[in-house]
Design brief:
The protein is α/β, with parallel strands linked by helices and 246 residues long. 41% of the residues lie in helices and 20% in strands. The relative contact order is 0.15. The N terminus is likely disordered.
Length: 246
């Protein structure tokens, strides 16, 4: 009689990457990901929408590839999490590059049983001075509020994620909504090692214009006003990579 999967077969961390029409960035991220330490104890799940041929070519058998019915990041991440087999979920943008010891640092942060999840320090990949200033402002914000965003690489215990019902059915600001619910339930950890994310959205649309748009969205969210009607403006044209000029 054949038993179920052994503990040795179960991955320690499930890395979930939502992607929409972003095969080029995804390929770079996967190339980087499989060079970091501890990947033999992780599984990678790509939940995709849009460019099927390019995405399949970028994945090239290196990850489990899903094609959920929806295209929002919340839908993609929730579908990826539903397929995850480990006790820790690590949500990674398709254009984000974790530090070389990311998996060890996540396990270390979660060794405290009071911690439900967390994220890494934010840093843009590109060296432009405007992005460095925005990173500095952003660090002040999340260190004070503990509201982490997806471009910081959010990680969470799988049972906590499911208890919270996963990401809300939102088209925009799903990360902020999730982190605020997580903070009410458990402590969160900030790993003081940067995870690098492309600043292409800021560069293609204008760094300060994009930054002020984010501030506007945060103000609307804080006042409990509608932010969802700005989702397509934030995401950009449906047939182009996220953050493309509109």
């Amino acid at each position: 009689m054949t038993g179920g999967p052994s503990e040795a077969d179960t991955p320690q961390i499930s890395i979930i990457i939502p992607v929409r029409n972003d095969a080029e960035a995804l390929a770079r991220t996967l190339d980087h990901l499989f060079r970091i330490a501890g990947m033999d104890a992780a599984e990678v799940i790509v939940a995709a929408s849009g460019d099927r041929e390019g995405t399949e070519r970028a994945v090239d058998g290196r990850a489990q590839l899903l094609w959920p019915a929806g295209s929002s990041r919340a839908v993609l991440m929730n579908d990826g999490a539903a397929q995850a087999r480990s006790g820790v979920l690590f949500f990674l943008h398709a254009d984000s590059l974790p530090p070389s010891q990311a998996l060890r640092l996540i396990r270390q942060a979660l060794s405290d049983q009071q911690v439900g999840g967390g994220a890494f320090e934010h840093q843009f990949t590109e060296p432009e001075w405007s992005l460095r200033v925005i990173t500095w402002i952003n660090r002040l914000r999340y260190r004070l509020t503990r509201n982490f965003y997806g471009d910081q690489g959010i990680f969470v215990r799988a049972d906590v994620f499911r208890y919270l019902g996963g990401y809300g059915e939102l088209q925009l600001m799903e990360d902020l909504d999730f982190m605020q619910r997580l903070k009410r339930l458990k402590r969160t950890a900030l790993v003081r090692v940067p995870l690098r994310t492309s600043g292409r959205r800021f560069l293609s649309r204008g760094p300060w214009r994009t930054f002020l748009f984010i501030v506007w969205l945060l103000a609307l969210h804080t006042l409990r006003l509608d932010t969802q009607r700005y989702a397509e403006r934030w995401r950009g044209p449906a047939d182009l990579p996220p953050g493309s000029p509109y």
